[in-house]
Automatic annotation (TrEMBL):
Entry keyword set: DNA-binding
Molecular function as annotated in GO: DNA-binding transcription factor activity; transcription cis-regulatory region binding
Domain HTH tetR-type: 10-70
DNA-binding region, residue range(s): 33-52
Organism in which the protein naturally occurs: Bosea lupini
InterPro entries on file: DNA-bd_HTH_TetR-type_CS, Homeodomain-like_sf, HTH-type_TetR-like_transc_reg, HTH_TetR, Rv0078-like_C, Tet_transcr_reg_TetR-rel_C_sf
Pfam family, one: TetR_C_41
Domain of life according to the entry: Bacteria
Entry protein name: DNA-binding transcriptional regulator, AcrR family
């Protein structure tokens, strides 16, 4: 029995993204051969062009998938916290810690910006800012943090976490830099707390 077209499309896209993710995560975007990538997925270059337009379009799909996984991880970390402030703080720290993952370092923090440009222009960052703004609005409304423009604070915090992640990803000793970055970041973030 033949599979429905919609199922075949999903399977083809899934195979291409998985193959690209494996290649981009190990040899990097620039060194990934389109022919080797499609052959490893058991597909043709035509399938890649049809579904993603080009190699860059495939990178966008891989980044979107990894970003969704990162968000799910950070939300799970936040959900384990005992209160909204700790959840917010832990979620931000979890993002910085993810910069220790070799796949995230290569794809999200090095190759992504090199190929796609400034991460501030990526659609995924817009969602991050929106979500963080919402969290900060609630924290300000409940008096947990000092009155502050939540979007301004969200953009500054996102900038700090993004820069910390870049620093870790490009450091000769990522573990040591991660500890330094998280300690400094958490001290800075605690400056938002309302003073009694």
């Amino acid at each position: 029995m033949r599979k429905p077209r919609s199922q075949m499309i999903v399977e083809t896209r899934t195979k291409l993204i998985a193959a690209a993710r494996a290649a981009f995560g190990t040899v990097g975007y620039a060194q990934t051969s389109m022919d080797d990538l499609t052959a490893s997925a058991g597909l043709t270059r035509g399938a890649l062009y049809h579904h993603f337009g080009d190699k860059k379009g495939l990178l966008v799909a891989v980044i979107t998938e990894i970003d969704a996984e990162m968000n799910a991880h950070m939300q799970a970390v936040s959900a384990k916290a005992g209160d909204p402030w700790t959840g917010f703080r832990d979620e931000c720290t979890a993002y910085i810690e993810l910069a220790l993952d070799p796949e995230i370092q290569r794809i999200m923090l090095r190759d992504g910006p090199a190929v796609l440009g400034d991460p501030w222009d990526w659609p995924t960052l817009s969602e991050c800012i929106r979500s963080m703004t919402e969290s900060l609005t609630k924290l300000a409304e409940t008096g947990v943090i000092a009155p502050i423009d939540p979007e301004a604070a969200a953009r500054l915090i996102a900038g700090a976490t993004q820069y910390a992640a870049q620093w870790i990803a490009n450091a000769p000793e990522p573990e040591a830099i991660s500890r330094k970055a998280i300690d400094a970041f958490n001290l800075m973030l605690d400056g938002l707390l309302a003073r009694s």
